[in-house]
Structure formats: C-alpha cells, structure tokens
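Human: I wish I could look at a protein chain and see how it folds. This is the protein in question:
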Amino acid sequence: MLSLKDIKKDYVVGDSTVSALKGVSIDFRENEFVSILGPSGCGKTTLLNIIGGLDRYTSGDLNINGKSTKDFKDCDWDSYRNHSIGFVFQSYNLIPHQTVLSNVELALTLSGVSKSERRERAVKALEQVGLGDQLHKKPNQMSGGQMQRVAIARALVNEPDILLADEPTGALDTETSVQIMELLKSISKDKLIIMVTHNPELAMKYSSRIIKLLDGKVIDDSDPLDKNVVEPIKKPEKEPTKADKKAAKKERKKLKTSMSFLTALSLSRNNLMTKKARTLLTSFAGSIGIIGIALILSISNGVQLYIDQVQSDTLSSYPLQITKTTASIGEIMNTMAKNHEDSANHDKDKVYSQNAMGEMINTLMEETKVNNLEKFKKYLDDNSDLKDLTSDVQYTYATTLNVFTESDSGVMQVNPSTLLEDMGYMSSTQMEAMSMSGSMGGMGTDVWSEMIDNEELIDKQYDVIAGRLPEKYNEVVLVVDKNNEINDYVLYSLGLLDPSSLNGIVRRAMAGEDISVDSEQHVYTYDELLDLKFKVVPTPDFYKKKDGVWEDMTGDESYMKKAVANGTEISVVGILRPDEDASSASISGAIGYRHDLMTYLIDEVDNSEIVKEQIANPDIDVFTGLKFKTDENAADTDSSSETVSDSTADTESKADETADSSDTDKKAGLVAGDSSMEIPEGMTEEQYKALMEQSGASDTGELADMGMNAMGSMDMSAIQGGDMSSLTETQKKYIASLSDEQLELMKQMLKEQSDTNADQLANSGKYSTSNYDNNMKTLGYSVVEDPDSINIYPVDFASKEKIIDIIDDYNDSVGEEDKIEYTDYVGLMMSSITSIINAIGYVLIAFVAISLVVSSIMIGIITYISVLERTKEIGILRSIGASKRDISRVFNAETVIVGFVAGALGIMISYLLTIPINMIIAHLTDVPIRASIPVSAAVILIAISVCLTLIAGLFPSRVAAKKDPVIALRTE
C-alpha cells in the first residue's frame, strides 16, 4: 500500500546543507498501528510530513498503491492529502472562528461533496468520537481532549486510507491520552495509522509496530513487512492504451480538490466577524474615496438633471423649424462675411463705401429657397427612430384660426388678435410679422397657440390647478403664470375686459390727450374662467354668394352674428400653471388648443362650397368672376396698356415742370395722412418741429386735421398738369408748410398711383388682379399632407444632433431641388454648458480617485497583516488538501468582502450627506438642483470598490498561497 524507498531529505541553511532523512526505506501494511519513536531532531516529523504530502523528499521514492510519486504535481499532492490522508496534530490545529461542525465539514467541501451529504457525514464522524452533542460550539469553548476528538473526526470524515498522528497526546493529561489512544487503536483495525510520539509506554501498549529513528535513519523495526520473503519478479507492465490514459485522466480530474468561492467567502466572513471593529474601521477608511466620488456624482447628476429639464423645456419652446420658404441665416452671414473679406482690397489712404445693402439683398435672394414639405413629411412619418428622439413633431398650416366671442353688444374677434392695431400701436402688416414671431417662439400678438402633443411633457411643465387637460378638438385650457395671474393684454384680447376702451388710445396719447387705462386688479374664480365659451368660424363662412360671385361679408354686422352663432363652440376645460421647477414652457399663448382642432378646421375649409368652386374652376376668380391673368393672356394686357402708359408719361413730364416752378408749387405733392402719423419719413426731428411752427399747428392732431381739410378737395390732376390756379388759399398755405423731401415723396406716390391706375385700367372688366394661389390662401385652404411649416421638438441636445443627422441623411438621398433648409433657434446655446459640467466633474473625480487608490493600498496592507495572522489556518487548510489557488481564493474573498462593505458604507453615508447638501443648495440659490446618486452609479461605485480592493489584495493572497504548509503549521 505505502512504501518508502531510500527517502532522503536535505535542508539548505545558509551555505550549509542539513540532512534530515538519510535513506529511509519502509513498507507499510494496509491496516496497522505504527509508532515512530526517536529523540527530538531525529527526523520523525519530517518523515511524517513527507508521508502526508506536506513536504517533498529530496531523493528516493514514495510509492502509493504501487504508484510512484516522483512525477506528482501540486494538484496531485493536494488530492492525495484530501482523499488518502488524515492529520491529527499535537496542538489540534482547529480553525478558531469556525464551529466544530464547520471544522469537520471543511475537508468535504474541498472534495466537492454536496451540502446535505457533507452535513450528514460530519455529524456521523463527530458522533463516532463522542461529540454528537457539541456540533455548534467554537473550539475555544471545548477542553483539550474534546478538541483532539474534533481533530480526529476531521481526519476521519473523508474516509482516508492513512491516518497520521503527530504527538496526538502531547498536550493531554494521562486519562484523556488513554481515551485518545483507545480511539486510535480501534480505528487501526480498518486503516493504517502512523503515529509519531515521544512516549514509548503508549507506543508499546497500543501500537502493533514500532519503528525507531536516529539521526535520520531507521535503526529498528519491530515488525517489518515480509522481511524474510523474497518478492516475486514482476512481469513488465503493458503500455497503457489511449482509453486507459483517458480513464486515468478522468479519475484524476474527479479526485481534484477545489474550494468554492462561497466557501472562501464563508471562511473570510467568519474570520472578519471575529475582528468587527478593525473590519469596520478598515471599510470606513476604504469608503472615503467612494464617498467623495459619490457626492461629486450626486451633485453632477443633480446639475445634469436640471440641465436636461432646461433642455427639454427650452427645446419645447424653440424647436427645429422647417418652413416652406426659408433662408439659412448661417449661410447668409458666412457669404456676406466672405464677400466683405474679398472686397477689402484697396489702400487705406481714403474712406471707401461698402456695398452692404446690395450684398445683403443679393445674398438673401440667393439663399432663399422653397422646401418640399410634402415629401419631407412623408419621410418623417416613415422614420421609426424619430419617436424616441422627439417630444413631438408639430405640423402647422396656413389655415387661419378665427375665434370669436358673443355678447349682447355683438361679436368680437379674439384670434387673430387685432388689439394692438385697434389701439393704433402698429399696422396690420406689423401685426402679421409679430404673429409670425410668436410662432417661432418669440413674443407674438395672438393669445391662442397650439399645444405640444406630449401629455407627459406638459405634466412636467404645468400643474393643473382647476379642471383637466383637453381631450377633444373643441376643448382648450387657459394658462396663468406662476403667481396665478393673467396679464391684461390677454384679458382684453379674450373679451374679459372691454377692448373698445382702448381704441385709438395710442393715437390719442401721441396727440397729447388725457387718457386713462383701467389699472384695477380684477379677480376671477376658477369656475368663472371654466365657463368661458368661444366660437371658431372657418374663413369661407365670411363669404356669401351674390350675383354669381362671392362677396366678403365681414363688414355686415348681422351676417357676422349669424356666422359666429353657427360656428363651432370651444370650451375652456382646464386652467394650467407653470411648474415651479420648469425653466421654460411649451405653450406660448394664454389659450392652448389641441392639434386636432386645426385638422378639424382644415377639413371644414376644404369641404366648404366656395373652396370647392374655386378648385373646380382654377382659371376663374370666385370673388370677381374674372379670369386669372396668365402667361398666355399677358400679351393682350401689355398692348392694351400702351395708351395709358403714354398718357402717364405726359403726366410725369408735366409734374417735373411743375416741380421747378416755385417753392410753393414744389410742396404741393404731399398728402398729410391721418392723426396717427409719427415724424414723416425723410424728415429729421428738427425739420418736423420747423414744419409745425411754419404751419401754425399747435400739435400733431391739428396739423393732421389741417392736412386732411386742405387735401380733401384738392384736384390732383391739376397739380400733375402744373396748373396751380385751381387751388384755394388754404391749400396753398398748407402746401407751403411742406419740405422738399416731402415733395419728392409726393412725386413717387403719384407715379406709383399712376402705374396702378394704368394696370387696373388695362385689366378693367377683363382679368382678375389676383391669382389662384392667393385666393386659396385667403380662404385658408390647406392640405394635411403638405404643411406650411414643421416644428420638430427634440428631447434633448443629443437627440437634436441625431435629428439633424436624419435631416442630413434625407438631403443626401434626394435631389438638389428637394433638399431641406431648417432653422435651429437654440443652436449650441446650452450644449457647451453640459460639456463644461462634465469636464469639471471628471477633474474632481480624478482628484478624489487618488484617495480611493490610497485607501485600496491600505486595504492591501491590512490584508497582508491578515495573512500573517492566519498563517496557521493556511497550514491547516493545506493539510486537509487545499491547493495554493484555494488559499489565494480565501484571501481574495476577504478583500471582496471588505471592498463591498467599504463601497456600501460609502454609498449609505453619501445618501445621508445629500440631505444637508440639498438644504444648503436650496438656501444659497433658487436653481432647483437636487443632488442625488443614480442607482446605476451606486452599483458601479460598489463594484469599483470591490475591484480595487481585490486588486490590492492580489499580492497578499499570492504570498499566502506560497507559504510552506509545514512552516505554517508550526506558527502560533
């Protein structure tokens, strides 16, 4: 079974070599009780360690079941110790932080035995040694004899072939020693027991064979194996086949020992629990770096969430806008800058003019183009990626939303608002420009605006303080500000205050009149506002067919009352207030309506009788019954207007002669205008004052009245012909008050009027002065598939860049005529801020990461200290078959536990610290930044902590794995 052939063991000590064993040869039976006696230093323990595979022989051979061990690798020795050897030590060598049951089970865990079987076999082994009722005690709670019994149970639990006992009774009293020896003797009936002892009496009493050693040699063997029998000559062994080799390899793999990581974690956890205070302090030190990084990430995350909200809110107000007719402002500026650089090629000895206006007009004409939105809309509708990148894609149309209110005094137009025009603040052209500005995110004049079709975003930006959000096309919401206030412009526009009290107020103020504006603060209940009703009237309903043509009836009060009464009723169903944390709002007006109200209106317009008639007769103007002027009939118009042009030329010639006649005559060409005029174009403020003095007028209003009275009956043809005799004295006096610039302006006005009259005369009764497209636009005709503009609302700036890539991909796939030009109103307004915040965060994290690395190094040092403290445990584990990798795994598990505790502790402390941090931020600033650690970041930080401590513990664990098990077992 076990045979030692000329075993020698040498130790190198400095420059000298010490021979512990000098050619020991012993053969052992399968079951016998062998005692090895000899003085200290004779090589007894060295021989026992070589037999047990803890130490390696220098020369000779150790045969196990006839198999040489000369070619054994570390894994073979580990398997041999685990499956064939059981150790019983003089000092018991139990792991102190493990229970009795866990100590006995440990060898079985290395063998890969299942948990249930492991428990059953360990309990049976403890019962066999009389400790079945002591399973859950720790070793320090037991007597010496009991601990030795536990050691014997541990040695027997894996059913080894050989039991090695090194001074098993050396630390026991006489009575207990006898008990242990009786136990070993009973075991020897089935197993080979080799005991090293200094007690010859015990050896003589209990052993079946005594071998004596002296100076590393066997000097006596009481019962050698077959010493008088000559061994038969063995037949040469057959060469093993491939199947034999494969079976042997499979058997070795089956017997290979391995400790699971969970077992390693359990060992390390129990060890750390015996040093709770040190473990906690070590973990806290390791958590400092985690706390620093976590706090930086929490603040950075709060800032990023705020930026994301600002981005979302801002982009909901300033979308990517694509209109039918557009010009790339960036391209215009770049082209003008390039032209300016190219033109600056003259000397600097004089001052030169710069053709800025001409370049601007030419560039504007070159860069302005018409977008094919019908084709682009289809492309967007078919793009599946767009939904995740946008809050909404809004299609707007040229169809006018005509909104009215009804009262006892009549009907009032609410949208488009005419309030500023009625006040005399601006003209209808300026009002139209302001309305367009509002659609682009600026300050418009209309108080009605389309809501973004994203209820989630609206919920984030607004609080519903009364009612609900609209659910149908004929439902709208009223929007108040953060103080629950509505400015009076909205109240006048909606008819909640009387707008007629403001009529002409600007003109009267400029004329110096005393005026008063209602400054009282009005209060409205939610119910009063929710009772508001409006009427939407399609534009075609403003027209009535008379005598075969359609007549505009907006001036007919009774007709308009009827038209409004028949309009679609719109109800206010909710009142919204911007959320306190919202940085921007998506609803630009005071009344927000759904997109399907516009689609409903488009459908009403398209199905109206007048629109159908115009579509059916594209060559006929439905308003006049005349044909539209086309290229084919343009020649007729040109020939018919020649006579009129000649007469106009004569008139201009006479006007020029009149201009030279006298100062008084030169000034006869100016029309005074109405009382709303400001300083006339072409006049400076000083000239205007001089005019006032010269005319004798006390103010603008008097001057205007004088002008209107004078010009009301003036014969313009007489002025054009140069005959001033028909003018009255009042008219001549008024003309004398005009400047040369005003006279020149008068000539231009007369010429333009003459040209217009000539054109109208040429076309009179023959062709319409309008065209098909203008008529359809006037009627508000639109096609849903062909929007007037497209507003794309990106989720954030990163999404905006991806949307721009989608537009670029579209442009690359179509011809030059179908390429899309868009306007990005936000641009890079805030994207750079995000980059700066991220850069600052990265720099701070880099600084704090230094402390994290330092703390990890400290954990590595503490792990090394743990290796030194657990050196004996290393020897015990190796003696029961643990491999070097298993030992390394135990200490790696310890660093993993410390790293996890450090990371988790750091995250918990960081979460607690965010509470005062948020209080400080709220106290110092009004910006709604809330520091918070993302869950993903917390998990990643814990993982980083574990990884860093694991890396820091690699060196100590490697040191532990390389420790000599024989030396480790001697460590106290």
In short: Residues 511 and 713 are 25 Å apart (CA to CA). The chain has 39 helices and 28 strands. The first strand starts at residue 2 and ends at 13. The mean pLDDT is 78.
